[in-house]
Amino acid sequence: MASLASIPQTQLFSNNPITNSKQLSSFRKISSISLIRRNPSNNFGSMVLDKVEIPNMTLKAAVTTSAEVKKGFVEEMRSVAMKLHTKEQAPREGEKVAKGPEEKSPAKWDPTIEGYLKFLVDSKLVYDTMERIVQEAPVPYYAEFKNTGLERSQKLAKDLEWFKEQGHSIPEPSDPGVTYANYLEDLAQKDPQAFICHFYNVYFAHSAGGRMIGRKVAEKILNKKELEFYKWDGDLSQLLQNVREKLNKVAENWTREEKNHCLEETEKSFECSGKILRLIFT
Ligand code: HEM
Prior knowledge:
The chain is mostly helical. It folds into two domains: 67 residues, no CATH class; 204 residues, Up-down Bundle (Heme Oxygenase, Chain A). It has twelve helices and two strands, in the order H-H-E-E-H-H-H-H-H-H-H-H-H-H. The protein has a two-stranded antiparallel sheet.
């Protein structure tokens, strides 16, 4: 069990402690201790500004680095997401041990055209849903994320058209995509912080691991053809940076509890996307 003494002072009194999503899930389950958080501009002890509940079993790993805090909330979301990767997916930052086949390196997958088409169709349903929600903006700040240049729905429509021209039949969306799309619809109305977590993970995962997957699958079954799904109009790193800034701006208005709730949703996002990824080789 971690003790307060084992935590470097810089982390212990970080202005913005977070937990990874596993630890966050245990927030409600594990008896917790209270950690006094100080504002760096005040002397500790002279002004106590906040109290953060940290489960005592996971205290050390639960606290973020000050570098992540300085970079803004996206860095916190990224940190939680990277820890949920397996070593095979992201060797530098992944921490999980691969269990399901979709958690192994895409280099080891045996994709089929049929499976890949199911993946593309279900992915399209998820992007259609996400992009419609952002357009309708049931929560006003979703409108910040209209026309970011990261949208994938039309690109996927072109790819499916290409497969059709090649003589393949396009399947109907299957359970993983339909379930995820319905879940997003529901969250968008009821739980904006959780919805934003999915928004971040869906678009940023695709720009990172998603592209790696696209390359591997194309090498194995598409004669290296690069699909539109993996192309962006404009400079991708600039588009991503613009969205990071908007996400940081939106999250500035959230309480620490709302931020933690958003981070806590990351695990669900991996679960939903993992089920869709699995279609590639089933
Ligand atoms: C086989 C599956 C996957 C592979 C191979 C993979 C691999 C990677 C790699 C190599 C990175 C880049 C790390 C770096 O910056 O150096 C990354 C980033 C990331 N991945 Fe994954 N990933 C996979 C699945 C997922 C899933 C299911 C999600 C969540 C739904 C996800 C979310 C993210 C996020 C949010 C980032 C950070 C992107 C950024 O900082 O711009 N990944 N992934």
